[in-house]
Amino acid sequence: MQTIRQLDLLRNGIADLRSDGSRIALVPTMGALHAGHIALIEAAKRPGTRVVASIFVNPKQFGPNEDLSRYPRKELADTRMLNEAGCDLLWMPPVEIMYPEGFATNVSVAGVSDGLDGAARPGHFDGVATVVTKLFNQVRPDLAYFGEKDFQQLAVIRRMVADLDMGIEIIGVPTQREDDGLALSSRNIYLDEAERAKAVALPRALGVAARAIQKGDDAEAALAVARESLIAAGFVIDYVELVDAETLGRPDAGRPRRLVAAARLGQTRLIDNLAVEPVESA
């Protein structure tokens, strides 16, 4: 696996990967890799496709009171994991290449960015859309893979790619979970032992609510039960909502829906989501 930090070398590296007619698949990450990231690499390893991963801790998607300085950085371990997973090229640019002096452009995606995490973390999705646009322009992939755990991020990127005619196939990969159901996340390392034991309440509450809604129970009542169980477990809730799976707006029982949640245990903010299938017929 090549590890590249300069843009001119990246262009050459991508050209080499394409020289045999291969397509390029991009897996963007912020490092601190875990099995969820490796599942993205594995999904991208299709015949005739070369896999490029990026590691860049993007300052533009962190708010003033968020954990940019604390965000885990594990360059050696990450490089080893990607190499062992069969990644072909690692793009690991420094901040001054991504945002050189005088950088003045912002990419904003209205609608899908506005609620949920967009409301809880103002400016976050502008930072995501801007850095992903840069990564797409640098790597010029044919496909890009993102985890469904960050479901709103996936919706933002899909909308952006469609609106800007980028011609990149965006593929969502199902959330990878611990044995007890907790979604894998780089931020899970912030949980102490007691918090980790409580954290499983999040996927369990969503599972109960999703099953209730799917069989036709009142959605608002199911959401209220989920919120109550999370508060009882020690969470401080940002949101627990049922949304349209594409627009993230008001859900329609005839369209794909998603149950989404964000809540805090101590200093750690966890997110999760589950698909809600159509209402079961009697």
Automatic annotation (TrEMBL):
Residues at which ATP binds: 30-37, 147-150, 184-187
Q: Which Gene3D superfamilies match?
A: HUPs, Pantoate-beta-alanine ligase, C-terminal domain
- Identify the enzyme class: ligase
Compartments, record wording: Cytoplasm
Where beta-alanine binds, per the record, is at: Q61
- Keyword ATP-binding tagged: yes
Q: Which CDD domains match?
A: PanC
Q: Which UniProt keywords apply?
A: ATP-binding, Cytoplasm, Ligase, Nucleotide-binding, Pantothenate biosynthesis
Please report a single Pfam family linked to this protein: Pantoate_ligase
Q: Which GO terms describe its molecular function?
A: pantoate-beta-alanine ligase activity
Its annotated pathway reads: Cofactor biosynthesis; (R)-pantothenate biosynthesis; (R)-pantothenate from (R)-pantoate and beta-alanine: step 1/1
Q: What is its EC number?
A: 6.3.2.1
State the oligomer form and interacting partners. Answer: Homodimer.
UniProt miscellaneous comment = The reaction proceeds by a bi uni uni bi ping pong mechanism.
State the protein's purpose. Answer: Catalyzes the condensation of pantoate with beta-alanine in an ATP-dependent reaction via a pantoyl-adenylate intermediate.
Q: What is this protein called?
A: Pantothenate synthetase
> What organism is recorded for this protein?
Sphingomonas hylomeconis
What's the source species' lineage? Bacteria, Pseudomonadati, Pseudomonadota, Alphaproteobacteria, Sphingomonadales
